[in-house]
């Protein structure tokens, strides 16, 4: 489903660097989410947004920030990357029925 | 606290065998529960949700409020069912937030 896209798909960076992951959607959904996936831990919510002016922290927001530039765009930033932020990051959107539609994921490695 | 537990990291069965992926939850209220699936090199996608009471790809799941469970079942596993399966609970206040379990890898052997 190409309605939710993420860039980059893979990224290797060094400790201390600032990095931004981007998410775009063409589904017209107001709600957008950022998760990280770690083996054995499932998906954990980092931040979520109900519209451009509504940003909320999730379960594990420390070390991350987000920006909702438009209804269709939701970016996740790591201000100063650290190795334990190495993970697979997913963006998702949802409409009214709570079903979430996921992007393909960004594999981030912090050395 | 809201929580979803999938006790098995890996479930390995032979083709044609029955499959049951376990999911237990804790939630104070009326839960909305989902199963999501992630096939190899594909994105996470919805498999089924309990309010739809439907069967997708031969899978069914029944919400048992007494046992706080939402196990995923299929009578005859196929090799193409091999994937990672996540049980998820919709969070409070109709926020659309999902609380995911740890995931279970289903491996169907020929």
Order of helices and strands of chain A: EEEEEEEEEEE
What distance lies between the first and last C-alpha atoms of chain A, to the nearest angstrom? Answer: 31 Å
How far from one another are the termini of chain B? 41 Å
Task: Name the average pLDDT of chain A.
Answer: 93
Radius of gyration of chain A: 13 Å
Task: Give the oligomeric state.
Answer: heterodimer
- Specify which chain pair forms the largest interface: A-B, 25 and 22 residues
Strand content of chain B: 35-45%
Molecular structure report:
The complex is a heterodimer of chains A (111) and B (110). By secondary structure, chain A is an all-beta fold. In chain A, 0% of the residues lie in helices and 59% in strands. Chain A has strands at 4-7, 10-13, 19-25, 31-38, 42-51, 54-57, 64-70, 73-78, 87-94, 100-102, 106-110. In chain A, the strands form two sheets. In chain A, strands 2, 4, 5, 6, 9, 10 and 11 form a seven-stranded mixed beta sheet that branches. The mean pLDDT of chain A is 93. Chain B is 0% helix and 43% strand. Chain B is built from no helices and eleven strands. Chain B has strands at 3-5, 10-14, 19-21, 24-26, 33-38, 45-49, 60-61, 72-74, 83-90, 98-100, 104-109. In chain B, the strands form three sheets. In chain B, strands 2, 5, 6, 9, 10 and 11 form a six-stranded mixed beta sheet that branches. Chain B has a three-stranded antiparallel beta sheet with strand order 3-8-7, with no helix packed on it. In chain B, strands 1-4 form a two-stranded antiparallel sheet. The model of chain B has no long low-confidence stretch (mean pLDDT 90). Classes of the chains: A mainly beta (111), B mainly beta (110). At the A-B interface, strand 4, strand 5, strand 9 and strand 10 of A face strand 6 and strand 10 of B.
